[in-house]
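2024-03-11 09:14:02 INFO worker-7 job=invfold-0412 stage=load source=structure_tokens
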């Protein structure tokens, strides 16, 4: 009886371990915060409405091992139906810096939607990377796309 109970307990523990480790690990190249959180918790769908809105932990979804938060269930559903449409370009790194082959942190409130893609940018008191991006967006996009492909293979 003791052996049977021990065997069952072991199977339960192994089952738990295997399902909890079955999560897709995120790419090491993505700009993620604590607990694999993207865009510092901002809702990626909200950007397409013209505004950066902080997401809520109760409306979350995982895509490619990355956790995204949303401001509503409706936004969460839109994302899960078409994650590639809403996920930020270049793994969430600054688009201008990516054009130079660099991974630089972003200000999640500094963004631009162009041709249906979400671009995020670094911003400080003294500098706004989006200003540089807008001066030659087509060329910068091409350079950043090439850099991201080399860095992440995407």
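2024-03-11 09:14:09 INFO worker-7 stage=emit residues=154
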């Amino acid at each position: 009886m003791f052996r049977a109970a021990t065997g069952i307990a072991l199977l339960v523990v192994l089952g738990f371990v295997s399902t909890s480790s079955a999560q897709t690990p995120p790419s090491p190249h993505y700009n993620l915060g604590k607990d694999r959180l993207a865009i510092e918790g901002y809702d990626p769908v909200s950007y397409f409405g013209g505004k950066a809105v902080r997401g809520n932990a109760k409306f979350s979804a995982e895509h490619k091992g990355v956790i995204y938060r949303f401001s509503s269930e409706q936004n969460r559903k839109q994302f899960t139906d078409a994650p590639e449409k809403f996920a930020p370009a270049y793994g969430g790194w600054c688009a201008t810096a990516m054009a130079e082959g660099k991974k630089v942190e972003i200000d999640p409130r500094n963004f631009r939607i162009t041709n249906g893609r979400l671009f995020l940018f670094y911003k400080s008191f003294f500098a706004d990377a989006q200003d540089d991006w807008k001066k030659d967006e087509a060329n910068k996009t091409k350079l950043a796309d090439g850099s991201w492909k080399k860095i992440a293979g995407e």
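2024-03-11 09:14:09 INFO worker-7 stage=report msg="The chain is about 40% helix and 15% strand."
2024-03-11 09:14:10 INFO worker-7 job finished
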